[in-house]
Amino acid sequence: MKMVLIINGPNLNMLGRRPKEHYGSLTLDEINQKIIEENNGHFDLEFFQSNSEGELITKLQQAISYDAIIINPAGYTHTSVGIRDALEMCSGIKLEIHLSKVDERETFRRVNLVRDVCDKCFQGKHENSYLEAIRYLKSIL
Ligand code: DQA
Fold first, then answer.
1. How many whole angstroms from 23 Cα to the centroid of ligand 1?
2. Which residues line ligand 1 (CB under 6 A)?
3. Quick one: which of 56, 93, 108, 135 is 20 to 30 A from 70 by CA?
4. Which parts of the chain register pLDDT below 70?
């Protein structure tokens, strides 16, 4: 079975308490449950969340040969050369996810260090950004 890592960065463990107009109202556990339902046994899914840049980088290194990585780097999207460099080494399909319309928000969020090392970006649809990514992977893998 093809291996897919779903990896979430800082503050995404606090979904449900973050501004709903940007991030929706579901918790991360509820989103992960929806991802499992959308996947419907198609891929072997592994979930990981951390608030720490180093832990995220170590997990990406462990997933270097996975078939796909679905990543929401959260605030590190805009700052982390380390996460970008780790992603660049990963050989599978890499999908960048954002719950909010990150390209249309504050100017500092338009700095994006991961976009060009990812194959595609799904953003602005709250939890549906993740579900669209799963559907996309099903269509190509
Ligand atoms: C986010 C957007 C980021 O700018 C922000 O720092 C986040 C979440 C999103 O999913 O919309 O924490 O990645």
1. 8
2. 11, 72, 74-75, 77, 98-100, 102, 109
3. 108
4. none
Question: Tens of pLDDT along 9-38?
Answer: 999 999 999 999 999 999 999 999 999 999
**Which amino acid is located at 87 in the chain?**
L
Helix (H, G, I), strand (E, B) or coil at 98: strand
pLDDT at 47: 99
Q: Which of 66, 76, 98, 126 is catalytic?
A: 98
Q: Which atom of ligand 1 is nearest to the CA of 129?
A: 10
Q: Which residues contact 49 (CB under 8 A, 6 or more apart)?
A: 7, 8, 9, 12, 13, 28
- What span, in angstroms and rounded, lies between the C-alpha atoms of 76 and 91? 21
Q: How far is the CA of 67 from the centre of ligand 1 (A)?
A: 24
What pLDDT does residue 70 have? 99
Protein residue whose Cα sits closest to atom 10 of ligand 1: 98
Q: What is the pLDDT of residue 46?
A: 98
Residue nearest ligand 1's atom 3 by CA: 74
